[in-house]
Amino acid sequence: MTPSAMPVKEHYDRFLAGQYAWMAGGFDSNLERNRRFFVQAGIVPRSTGTAIDLGAGCGFAAIPLAEAGFRVTAVDFCRPLLRELVHRAPGIATVEGDILDFPLWAGRDPELIVCMGDTLAHLPGAGSVRDLLRQCYTELVPGGKFVLTLRDYTPGEIGETVVLPVRRDADRIFLCRLEYDEKCVGVTDIVYSHQSGTWERSASSYEKIRITLAFLLRELEHAGLRIDEHMAGEGLIAIIAEKIRA
Known about the structure:
CATH superfamily of the largest domain: Vaccinia Virus protein VP39
Structural class: alpha/beta
Number of strands: 11
Largest sheet: 7 strands, mixed
CATH architecture of the largest domain: 3-Layer(aba) Sandwich
CATH topology of the largest domain: Rossmann fold
Oligomer: single chain
Strand order of the largest sheet: 3-2-1-4-5-11-10
Order of helices and strands: HHHEHEHEEHEEEEEHEE
Distance between the termini: 43 Å
Number of helices: 7
Strand content: 25-35%
CATH class of the largest domain: Alpha Beta
Helix content: 25-40%
């Protein structure tokens, strides 16, 4: 695997945050993609009007939800990304901290909780995922929705290494190397930057856990949530679930 892997938070704080929006395809394009996703899913305020975005980052989901009329609390462990969110949308409340520290974001009576991007894959293991899903059920008001998306790392074979071109422009190239193990994926983000007439390389490694669609569907149902929609394809998993009892 990746013996030099650093904690996920350190990777974001020291390496990824400053280029995250660019790496992900651009800020505006991500906002527009999530606007379309929420419209197609029928995600609009219906009861308390409160939404929580777990692993909000720089606001790719939180900002479209606020535009749709929700009062959004954005939770993330990465201060630089939250600063970018506040700069772009100062009306959104932010909470800096680990999403597994439940008292940080509990007690708000949300009708919607979203957990998008690779937030779940950043957790320590399956037990942490299970605990988070159960906490989301506890926090949602009856009839509330839980929206989950993440990359699907399950197709990779154990021992396989893949290098993916993520994005490039005239002065920067971003690559991602994935090293597959049984329960996790070693991730190395690699950036080549053109400065002063030469190309310079920087890299940082961390780990993500591998989570199957079947596991998520089972644990959501065990937590008490009804699955309304789910899909897995083109390297992504998406699930919309609903709390149907108090």
